[in-house]
Design a protein that fits this description.
Blueprint (H helix, E strand, L loop, with lengths): L12 H12 L6 E6 L6 E7 L2 H7 L6 E3 L1
Antiparallel strand pairs: 1-2, 2-3
């Protein structure tokens, strides 16, 4: 089972996505991730296993892994 949260806009996406994932946390997922496209157009991925708090500690665009 999975839950997907999306956001398109000009505000900081990381905080918005984390809030959305927090609303799904009760489902007991064993991992979570965020993919964002910053101003330079690269796709950056941050993921963590375990509780959402593990992802929260890593959810910084500077720590994201560029893809592509």
């Amino acid at each position: 089972m999975c839950g997907i949260v999306g956001y398109i806009g000009h505000q900081g996406a990381t905080a918005i996505l984390m809030d959305g994932l927090r609303t799904l946390e009760y489902r007991g997922y064993d991992s979570a991730g965020i993919a964002v496209v910053p101003g330079d157009g690269t796709l950056c991925l941050t993921r963590a296993s375990g509780k959402l708090s593990n992802l929260q500690g890593k959810a910084n665009l500077n720590d994201a892994t560029p893809l592509g």
